[in-house]
Design goal:
By secondary structure, the protein is an alpha/beta fold. It contains 15 helices and eleven strands.
Length: about 350
Amino acid sequence: MSRPRNDLFLRALLKEPTETTPVWLMRQAGRYLPEYRETRKRAGSFLGLCKNPAYACEVTLQPLARYDLDAAILFSDILTVPDAMGLGLYFSEGEGPKFERPLRDEWEIRNLCVPDPHDQLRYVIDAVAEIRKALDNSVPLIGFSGSPWTLACYMVEGGASDDYARIKTMAYDRPDLMHKILDVTTDSVIQYLNAQIEAGAQAVMIFDSWGGTLAESAFHEFSLNYMKRIVAALHKTWNGERIPSIVFTKGGGLWLEALADTGADGLGLDWTIDIGKARARVGDRVALQGNLDPTILRAGPEAVAREAEKVLRSFGPANTGHVFNLGHGINQFTPPENVSVLVDTVHSVGRAVRAGR
């Protein structure tokens, strides 16, 4: 298979020269787009979107029809993996994701099994194949999963949490049970991401959304070590093409050097650290992805352009190694026209920086 016609994203991740800075956005297909809301209405629910490959393909492509983005990302949810383990994912209006059967008893944890991605998660793998075909080699397709720690947070807490007291207590009181959950989840993520690659994903990303809630030693033990295991087991090439990987720990600014040593090609940054300072710390070990504060997209277009340019100029004049993104997912109240300003600014300023202007 040949690279996509627009391969800026892949080249930047692999630290190959690029003529401008590539850009894609976490949650670029989502509630801020009226066409997404219309498709979700037809699907009946968020899970109805995720579990129908045709709908998943449709919403994946919607932001690409509006904006000159340099990558598509599979439309799905990180919690499809624990759902496939039998925990019973559902969404309460205004309350976010919840599980009918969170992991509370030791026997439930001991019985936890790795789901077959070609069986219990077949709808995701089918969606990857359908999206890849629909893209027609225009831009790369990114697959993804949650990190084992982040998935475990939902699996043990039963939903979102303010303090993660239940799972942290388990980690300190019963590390054997905590590691059992993380072992099974790690093997699940490895199989899941490799199945996405085999179906057509051209890069993969691990979202460690709640790694930043951990103390330093706990982060290394319960999150970082498992992400290293995943990266080491991922397909590095498929069909003759290199498959880069990205790790992203929200709140992980303290551990950038350790994250850069996971073996991943790219390191995602949230908005709490200056990207130039991050680059000085990790050097050329990895490409950097990020890291505009998503809330800026709710400001005026002049502010959007100004703050995007700050990120680009902070990264510096190198002609590769930077994938522009937000520091977390796009907010549902973002005016769609501001995304146009952002994408156009990134491409134009990226060219100017390379030209020394």
